[in-house]
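One such shown below:
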Amino acid sequence: MTLAELLRATQVVRITGDLAQDIRALAYDSRCVQPGGMFFAIHGARADGHAFLEDVLRSGARCAVSERPAPPSFPATWVQVPNIRRALAEISHVFFALDDRPLRLVGITGTNGKTTTAYLVHSILEASGIKTGLLGTIAYRLGDRILPARHTTPESLDLAEYLSEIQREGGGAAVMEVSSHALAQERVWSFQFEAAVFTNLTGDHLDYHKDLDSYFRAKLRLFEGEGAPAPRLAVINLDDPRGERILQLPQTSQITYGIHSNAQVRPAQFSQSLAGIRAVIETPQGRLECASPLVGRVNLANILAATATACGLGVDRSCIQEGIHRLRLVPGRMELIDEGQPFVVFVDYAHTHDALKNALEALREFTRHRLLVVFGCGGERDRTKRPLMGEVAGRLSDWVALTSDNPRGEDPFLIMNDVMVGLQKSGADYLAEVDRPLAIRRALEEAVEGDVVLLAGKGHETVQVLKDQAVPSDDREIARQVLRELGYQKSEP
């Protein structure tokens, strides 16, 4: 495709160089530039793409795109644009011919519940016979290929390439988590969503967004349309007071859900146990009975969100039931660890105070003796939630092991000190152990018959992120190993 053809998709301030040349590849990372490629020089939070212009020329780039004027004597074509991220998204859209056979795109945003809701919607669409891609925090499922996720929401260039691959593999839809960072950074600019789903909004990422109103405004952008028409369908949680604000937007179609509200999709009755959830759900299509192996009231909310989305997309009730039943597990989301021990162990990704609260309240319903929790707070992230998480953990559990959770460039002891402000306020019985595997061991040694142990914060993650390295660390595997070392043995079925 020629440079001229690509540039028709975006606004241009000035061009210096040859418009007739063919562009063979796109890149925003200088290490990924290919001969005949087009490089987008983005000034990001950690690096400035303009610092690598000599490198991209040596790699064979034919063209550079920037918000800045061309440097003196730049030897290749230079394209100045008013907004580099929008240009990247718009040109990527054309380069990968996404409009030739558009996918039904479902975007899910909110603080908590995005991943499980995405997995449920994906399972339902697959049960309805639609081959469906899935992009989110855990992995990117592109037809038969699965990639580990680098970001909850990929950069627009990567997203366009992934959606193109899903199309080539015969996919008819894609479900994706859309983070507030992605919306603020316009990673989904120009992508047309058929449905947008709002799960909830609680305090998180305030280091980036500064306040809850700014955080919510970023979420709203998914429902307003980002360089494309607004989604045809808005799926809104009425249990969250901000759901009412989304209802005021001029979507063509809206469907609401909630456990406590008088929403269109709501439970008429439900029961739960460690074996899962059974529910009768009111929907605009009539009552729907479902059974899910997912555990906890928080997953009932996720099931309602997925059911509402599927109803709004016109999926048959039997396919909704089958899709919910088929989903046996979401990695690191209330994942049961069973090595034959007389107490219950769950691993969950809960890493905000609200998510931790929901997880602990859900598990309290199944706790016959004590509820124990192991958790920490991430480094170089929102410090305001640290004492809140400490207070929630101490107030809602019987015993706490405070530990490390991806300290990154911060001193883990200082992070733990921030958490202890809230933990001590709660008056909880706790220990502080910076070594996460050792903290998990201490909790499992402490547990007795009838206890429930929650290993919170890391979920599906398989590394601990330190200042200059990522070391292997998987709560699920650590727990299994410790339980075996303690002499427990799972009986064969």
